[in-house]
UniProtKB/TrEMBL annotation:
Residues 28-74 form the Ig-like domain. Gene3D superfamilies: Immunoglobulins. One of its GO terms (biological process) is immune response. GO terms for molecular function: transmembrane signaling receptor activity. InterPro entries: Ig-like_dom (IPR007110), Ig-like_dom_sf (IPR036179), Ig-like_fold (IPR013783), Ig_Fc_receptor (IPR050488). Keywords: Disulfide bond, Signal. The gene is Fcrl5. The lineage of its organism: Eukaryota, Metazoa, Chordata, Craniata, Vertebrata. It comes from Melanocharis versteri. GO terms for cellular component: external side of plasma membrane. PANTHER family: FC RECEPTOR-LIKE PROTEIN 4 (PTHR11481:SF64), IMMUNOGLOBULIN FC RECEPTOR (PTHR11481). It comes from the Eukaryota. This is FCRL5 protein.
Length: 113
């Protein structure tokens, strides 16, 4: 994955996916890393729109090892909520690289079973 700049040029919150394919598949041992404001390490994670429970005195885990399929987002102070990352538990699944793609780019597709 990558951390593209917003149109205004300011950094936005993004999720780095490892391995870097989308949709992510649960059986790949997926980790998500929230990237955003460099001035704060506080991270809030959401799964299917619901905040993941964490003890208030701890920062959210970053990176986050995924153990359930769902739609994940994260929030960082100063740069806000990330776009969603989908983690599926399906086979077969057609994957594309988890990076920004532009029209005309050559793309490698993966059919996973």
């Amino acid at each position: 994955g990558c951390c593209p700049l917003s149109p205004a040029g300011a950094q936005s919150t993004q999720i780095l996916v490892e391995p870097p394919w989308t949709p992510a598949v649960l059986w790949d041992r997926v980790t998500l890393t929230c990237q955003g404001s460099v001035t704060s390490r506080a991270t809030t994670w959401y799964k299917d729109g619901v905040q993941l429970v964490q003890r208030w005195w701890l920062e959210g885990p970053n990176p986050l090892l995924i153990s359930e399929s769902g739609t994940y987002t994260c929030d960082r102070p100063g740069t806000g909520r990330s776009p969603p990352v989908h983690v599926v538990n399906a086979t077969p699944v057609l994957q594309v690289p988890a990076r920004a793609l532009l029209e005309g780019d050559s793309v490698t597709l993966r059919c996973r079973v």
